[in-house]
Write a structure and sequence with these properties.
Layout (H helix, E strand, L loop, with lengths): L1 H22 L14 H6 L20 H22 L2
Helix pairs in contact: 1-3
């Protein structure tokens, strides 16, 4: 029973790790400078600002090199759950 619980925790931890990796891949700079009214900041989303970051986020956050620890945790969790379920 404990093997199945450890496997389930590893699967959940792997999903949380991969979600955190995808969220941390976002922009690091502000889109609008401080003090800009909220209605003007929406119109500035498509224009280039004082940042060197690209306008759009690429699909690099879905790559294997960034998510391999999470995928490994999920794979080990599945193996543990299957090995604990077989009598």
């Amino acid at each position: 029973m404990t093997v199945i619980l450890i496997g389930a925790l590893l699967i959940i931890a792997g999903i949380v790790y991969m979600a955190g990796a995808a969220l941390s891949y976002g922009r690091l700079s502000n889109l609008a400078p401080p003090g800009t009214p909220a209605d003007r900041s929406a119109s500035r989303l498509a224009t280039s600002g004082p940042t060197l970051e690209p306008r759009r986020r690429g699909l690099g956050f879905l790559g294997f090199s960034r998510n391999w620890p999470g995928l490994l945790m999920i794979a080990v969790g599945i193996v543990l759950m299957l090995s604990g379920a077989v009598p």
